[in-house]
Amino acid sequence: MARLSLFWRATKQLPIGANRLRTGGRLLSHLFYTALFLSVAAGAEETSDAIIARVDQPVAEVIDAWRERGVPFAYTTELVTQDMTVLERSTASDPVVMIGQLLAPYHLQIFRIEGLLVIGRARPVEATDAEVESRPARRPDNSNLIAEVTVSASRYEILRELLDAPSLISQRTIQQLPLLGDDPLRAVQRLPGNASSGASARSHLRGSEQQDTGLILNGQRLLDPFHVRDYQNLFSAIDSRAINGIEVYTGGFPVQYGDGIGGLVLIDTVSPERDRHTELGLSVYNTSVLSAGRAANGDLEWLFSARRGNLDLILKEELGEPSYNDVFAEIGINLSSATHLSINGLVATDNVLAIAESDPDEREASVNETRNAQFWLSWSQDWRDNLSSLTTLSTSALNSGRIGSANDEAEIIARVNDQRDINISGLQQDWSFSPNDRHRLSWGAEFRRIEGDFRYQGEAEYFGAFARFRNTPLTIERDIDLQVRGDALAAYLADRWQTGDNTALELGLRWDKQSYTDAGNNEQLSPRISLLHSWSKRTDLRFSVGRYYQSQAVNELQIEDAITRFSPAQRADQFIASIQHQLNSKYSIRAEAYYKRLGHLRRRFENLLDPLAIMPELKPDRIAIIPESARATGLELSLAFENDKGLSWWASYTLAKVEDRLLGAYVPRSWDQRHALQAGVLWHNEHWDLSMVLNGHSGWPKTGVLVAADSDIDDPELTFASRNRERFAPFASLDLRVARRVPVKFGEMSWFFELSNATNRRNACCTDFELDEEAGPSPQLLQRDEYWFPLLPAIGVLWEF
Fold this sequence. Notes:
This protein is mainly beta. It is 8% helix and 51% strand. It contains seven helices and 43 strands. A hairpin with a 3-residue loop joins β33 and β34 (688-697).
């Protein structure tokens, strides 16, 4: 079988030494010596920049100074007001000690919550002075579990869904983690319940398919925001420097979010803290510029980010030219203290030439051109102190073209021309009403107009070993011209109230309907219930049960596999129970169990041997999987540590299983991993960041090739072994990152060096085969494993001013 993986072949040839690359080698070498020179030269500019709290200085200003150093303080301006000033000078080097001293006269404290240093008031209790000094402060007043705490200089609310407890990945953590291509979505792959190979920026969350996870940026659901999207969705179109954090629901999200049965990733961009801030970056993967600022006394804010991918400079020409770029812009306007407008735009373009075989006699290549443009306007309004609304008007356009060919007369001659134009316009409104501080009602509705135009032509003819598969046609011919027009509607209502001092409950109901599909079951009701009980100041219990639906998105119509009708909405019934306990001021543990029962599953297609093919729908190992149902179960155990000296680490273990029911029997899904381990160590100080992350899991299922037992030994027919009955060897990857920051005359300079799969472990992904016609009197079937990415070095520099 011809090798079909462009990036496998490309990265296999990437050396560690810079002298073995052409253009990419010069780029690596230039980056390395530039970073080294700037680090040494900038050392002469270093000055003492210790933070000093001066009398009459605003307390918020001192807190924000520590936040700029990466200390994760979070507060609401309703508590830390602008008229709160420093009453006594402090030069404490420990940020927690300093801020604690400044807050004490105002009866405020610091609480550690989900890795953040949240400023709030504690419930008054009767205790002796000694007891107060010895009691570890861990949690703010639980008498209002529904209350929200907003992070300064950020739109997202750290505790906005305390009841549902999403996993929070802070900006600081994202920038410290070793992430291939500096892609923030790859941080999601560090969470328990995730299954990923590292090749794609997408993840399987708790057994779901990759497209079952929704991505929401600044309140807007994004339409396929990935680069190299026709080849594993290699990178996302989201700049890690532009975002303030990520919240991840691996399941059990509230009714405000629908049309998804897997997970949910909420991303919010940074809000400027200074009048002007600029960043210029250059790395192996990207060249980037970012600008943010504010004017009109903070009533006008802007953020601009632009990136150009550098992979086309790294890869040899005979392996392809993956060129891509993205631009994001946001303008925020405070029309009044109660009215805020936000204008957002994200445009990503790709022009990717992927070459699987460069030999003229066996050439296989594909050109993929994509333009993805998304714009949205958000209007948030506080009508009264307890009544607010958010209205979003949006438009999205995805235009893609894929032209590919294979000219290998020994195996396959194929052609594909795949053109798609998708347009979605939407209007959404969300309301929130709190009659008192223990009760909150939320409701909203959404309308989307959906249009899709598809033109697909594909043909293939098999020869040699490809033509020997039993029950596989020798030729494929497809010619499809299709238009899709219709609407999608949704409405929801959620009632959240506090039933006791330590217990909160939410009941929610969501309704969805699609008219652009011609499938049955185009109207769905989704009831959900969530419960939070704070057993003690250090222990939380959570329970969630609900029904979730996911309609087939217009961009997911499987035209390439000759499917021209939409499938009914998929359904998932989810049951989740978790317990989280804060052992002391540094250690926390969490255990979570889940069960998902899935039904109404749509037909999906997989390549049994090579999931990395550049024209997968025209390969002879392509099969259709039509599950009757599916089930996913799992137990996740996590332990985390964090101190005030920049050191944190975590470890998690997941025992899980996900299976499809096919013809009455359960078969593991192709990303099923029974055992998974994640562990990492992060450390930083004023100038250095060091991180190390380990990802290991059981080998994913595999399917082999067999010679049909009843075929002619001199002219054998091939068939597949029982699907997913075997396993690849266990997967393991160790990733490392080191970064150095130094002040310079104008701003701050930093550089980083990163190793993905630092041990160069060979993690099997695929099965390659061939028939050796010269091995003896009869052809011999030969098989071997092929592998995911090898060791990948990366280096980059960043100038902030």
